[in-house]
Amino acid sequence: MSKTSIIVMVLGGIAAAAAVDAYVNAITGEPAGADAGDAEMVAMGRQVYAAHCADCHGADLEGQPDWRRRLPDGTLPAPPHDASGHTWHHSDRMLFDYTKLGGGALAPPGFKSAMPGLGEVLSDTEIWAVLAFIKSRWPAAIQTRQERLNKRQ
Predict the structure, then answer these.
(1) CB under 8 Å to 101, separation ≥6 — which residues?
(2) What gap in Å lies between CA 93 and CA 150, rounded to an integer?
(3) Nearest Cα to Cα of residue 53 among 75, 80, 91
(4) Cα–Cα–Cα angle for 26, 31, 37, nearest 5°?
(5) Which residues contact 92 (CB under 8 A, 6 or more apart)?
(6) Domain residue limits at 10
């Protein structure tokens, strides 16, 4: 198979995945991602974050003190979601799944996470909105870098 054929197949697969994602979004009304440029989504996310996330991750997304050092129970304190943390090192899909399913569901063997799954508490739309709110608080350069991760998925 030629290099051109492989490129065409890969691009076709990406286009098909994007079309399916758009179709599912149109049918379900659920957003397909966290759009930091959508003022309505960001406003909803701000409210949901304040009600369900700020107790651990901080009202200003600052996280808990000394968040890189394990606690006596083996878990890590809640990390910041601002530019000083590592949230932006992950794709929207990974962040969505981590929030919905909880840290334990996605962690490697032996990793102990205190992050609960919020899928029973928040709708998918609310989770995407929280992520949009968090992303809206990042500097433009970090938003751009994180968006590259989304395009790779």
Answers:
(1) 117, 119
(2) 8
(3) 80
(4) 120
(5) 33, 34, 128, 131, 150
(6) 1-30
Q: What is the pLDDT of residues 15-36, one digit of tens each?
A: 444 444 445 444 545 667 899 9
Asked whether residue 25 falls in the same domain as residue 38, the answer is no
Counting every residue written for the chain, the total comes to 153
Q: How many C-alpha atoms does 17 have within 13 Å on its Cβ side?
A: 10
pTM over 0.70: yes
Number of domains in the chain: 2
The whole-angstrom separation of Cα 127 and Cα 97 is 9
What pLDDT shows up at residue 107? 83
C-alpha to C-alpha distance for 35 and 60, rounded to whole angstroms: 19
H-type helices in 53-152, by residue range?
A: 54-57, 92-101, 103-106, 124-136, 140-152
Amino acid at 91: S
pLDDT in tens, 96-106: 999 999 998 98
